Fold this protein.
Amino acid sequence: MAFETAGAAELFLVARVLFGGVLAFMGLNHFSSAEQLAPYAEAKGLPAPTAAVYGSGGLLAVSGVFVVLGIYPVVAAGALATFLVGSAVAMHDFWAVPDDQTQDELTQFLKNVALAGGALAVLAVAGTSWTYSVGIGLV
């Protein structure tokens, strides 16, 4: 990526580490908390809830690390954006829960939407050359 201002490449690296690192941590949390997350996924109507928890954990962990390292950034950012929007709607349906759960679900919904926006921002620059990256990608 051709950065116009001094320090922009370093700032983008920090942004990638923060963004991808948080998502990777969230993914690892799916593995360590699967027993608590699977009943929630089941209550939301997901088929094979335990497999869904592990699958989504794997997607978050791998894609997050890939964003940090600059590996297949188009695939990683696209997968993250798709997952985050889908899970916001499917899992955090604040409009359909009892009043005592509305605020928690709204917070989680908005978190996923905001993170999806971050993934789309990464996707917007994913086809360019990233300074401080492994440099493995489709384009």
